[in-house]
Amino acid sequence: MTVDLKSDEHTFCEACVQAKQHTAPFPKASETEIKDIGDLTVSDVWGPAPTRSINGDRYLFTFTDGKTRHTVAYFGKTKDEALNHFKSYKILVKTQTGRDLKSLRSDGGGEYVNGSFRTFLNEHGIRHETTAPYSPSQNGISERLNRTIVERARAMLFAHELPRFLWAEAVSYATHLKNRSPTRALDGMTPTEAFTGRKPNVSHLHEFGIKIWVMVPRTKRTKLEPKAEEHIFTGVSDLSKAYRYWNQRTRQIQTSRNVTFDERT
């Protein structure tokens, strides 16, 4: 009997494939050329959170610039708020840096892959890269980021035994700290400096969850009442240059510039 040694080249073994299928290797670098801010935006959604935030939110939306690693976090009650947050992020980047967004990378979830989102991207000439199903490593920057930020936020809450509904406050502050921390990806520069061109001021940074004494307005106290009330520090307000705190009496997040920190707590 003559044996054709070349016949194996055309033999396909289904059982072998089922038993030995491996994950395809991921490219070491993005195929999108990243030269400037806005060339690549990486986005991801985390949620639903097991506990609604103090504002009723259950989802975290992050947008990270591939050039500077600068991240902006938004919160929402449902996943379908992704497009509105992306529009807000696009405006922020244009206003702060003068750059337009050129490409977006996300997973293939319905919050990104739908008619409204596709129409908006096409109208603005924004290229959309989607990762393959069950391949989160293709969206590595954002996947790692969300995991790191949420883990830090969780640790912040645990450290001071704070209620879980403050998770969004903790995530916001963790993002604020991340943007002001040097990173090897930028050769020791901070994302904030890379994004804005200015070194960040870190004199306002304090430990999340410590006691904060907030001045009571003169119109809301008598001459014999205390001038300050004790609350819980939860972050900073970039808009008003004030500190955010949790008022345990009213169960609200409020802001004030007139505060004293109790670093002992």
TrEMBL record:
Keywords: DNA integration, DNA recombination, DNA-directed DNA polymerase, Endonuclease, Hydrolase, Magnesium, Metal-binding, Nuclease, Nucleotidyltransferase, RNA-binding, RNA-directed DNA polymerase, Transferase, Transposition. Coiled coil: none annotated. One of its GO terms (biological process) is transposition. The keyword Manganese does not apply. PROSITE patterns: INTEGRASE. It catalyses: DNA(n) + a 2'-deoxyribonucleoside 5'-triphosphate = DNA(n+1) + diphosphate. One of its GO terms (cellular component) is nucleus. One of its GO terms (molecular function) is endonuclease activity. It comes from the Eukaryota. This is Rve-domain-containing protein. It comes from Auricularia subglabra (strain TFB-10046 / SS5). The lineage of its organism: Eukaryota, Fungi, Dikarya, Basidiomycota, Agaricomycotina.
